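From the methods appendix. Each design record in this collection lists the tokenized structure first, followed by the designed amino acid sequence. Records were kept in a plain field format so they could be parsed without special tools. The example shown here is representative of the layout used throughout.

RECORD:
FOLD TOKENS (340 positions):
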């Protein structure tokens, strides 16, 4: 029986760093280096390794992820593994999930410990990612699973995974839903299938997104006694400072300080504006509980879009994709409302 063909695409990140003369970690390793560090890969699959970039994930762009999605669509393989840095894994994996509709596994993995440290996790995460990409259950449910993130022997849905700690080994979790599967010994143990109706519905509108022009989205955070001056600067500028949309990291179930609410509503009149919960755990926002000028009822009535269970970073991915595809506000409202 022939082995599955797995295509590894390396973007850079901690998993691909090496020390310079001062001991500081620098980008430098490529896909072949990563594969060479994990001899066990050859037992699982026929590996094709490709270096796409050598940058920290904090320096990746929307255009690069769109290009990566197009590249994956054009490759002949039984599964795909993307290696990158952890700084933006929760964002890039979700963007890939919005752009790719494949019946083949697509896995994103990374590392928290760089290769110079004792027990670096990169080789183990890469081995686990390839094992997941080869697994019969995963292959049979690839379209239902969507893009996955594999870290520390757990498999997460791209729409739900969060980076919950800046440095620890167990930095990733899906706090609302838990993992889709776990790796135990040489097995992938299934646990659940993700709820994906909202993503599937959104993709029907994204045909032009891959070729669309970049649409910068500003991310603004609400906090105690925020006056809204930055919001006013964006909405009041002739070109909105170059932004085409905005995401507001709002308080509680979807609230803003009263003193900033007029600014938020003016911004929503000028640009598509989405409220997402700043708590970051992925829980759905309220829609019709509280009244008053800064409540969820008032903000929704004022034309603010609602992110549902998407936290601000993922809401920004979705809004940029909607804008890049040239969607109308009513369609964008339907897309975001589907997320709860």
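DESIGN:
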């Amino acid at each position: 029986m022939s082995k599955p063909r797995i295509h590894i695409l390396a973007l850079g990140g901690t998993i691909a760093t090496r020390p310079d003369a001062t001991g500081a970690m620098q980008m430098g390793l490529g896909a072949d280096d990563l594969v060479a560090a994990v001899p066990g890969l050859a037992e699982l699959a026929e590996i094709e390794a490709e270096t796409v970039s050598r940058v920290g994930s904090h320096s990746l762009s929307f255009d690069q992820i769109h290009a990566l999605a197009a590249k994956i669509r054009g490759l002949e393989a039984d599964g795909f593994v993307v290696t990158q840095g952890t700084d933006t894994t929760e964002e890039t994996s979700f963007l890939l999930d919005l752009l790719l509709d494949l019946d083949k596994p697509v896995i994103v993995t990374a590392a928290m410990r760089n290769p110079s440290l004792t027990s670096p996790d990169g080789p183990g995460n890469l081995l686990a990612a390839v094992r997941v990409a080869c697994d019969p259950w995963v292959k049979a449910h690839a379209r239902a699973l969507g893009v996955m993130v594999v870290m520390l022997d757990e498999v997460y849905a791209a729409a739900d995974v969060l980076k919950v700690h800046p440095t620890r080994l167990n930095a990733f979790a899906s706090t609302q839903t838990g993992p889709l599967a776990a790796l135990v010994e040489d097995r992938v143990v299934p646990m659940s299938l993700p709820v994906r109706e909202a993503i599937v519905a959104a993709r029907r509108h994204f045909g032009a997104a891959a070729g669309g022009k970049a649409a910068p989205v500003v991310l603004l955070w609400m906090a105690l006694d925020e006056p809204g001056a930055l919001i006013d600067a964006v909405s009041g500028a002739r070109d909105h400072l170059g932004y085409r949309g905005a995401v507001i990291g709002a308080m509680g179930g979807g609230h803003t300080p009263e003193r900033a609410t007029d600014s938020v509503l003016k911004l929503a009149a000028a640009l598509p504006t989405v409220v997402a919960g700043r708590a970051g755990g992925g829980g759905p926002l309220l829609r019709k509980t509280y009244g008053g000028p800064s409540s969820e009822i008032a903000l929704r009535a004022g034309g603010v879009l609602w992110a549902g269970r998407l936290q601000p970073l993922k809401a920004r991915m979705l809004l940029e994709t909607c804008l890049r595809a040239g969607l109308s506000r009513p369609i964008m409202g339907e897309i975001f409302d589907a997320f709860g």
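APPENDIX NOTE: Residues 221 and 249 are 5 Å apart (CA to CA).
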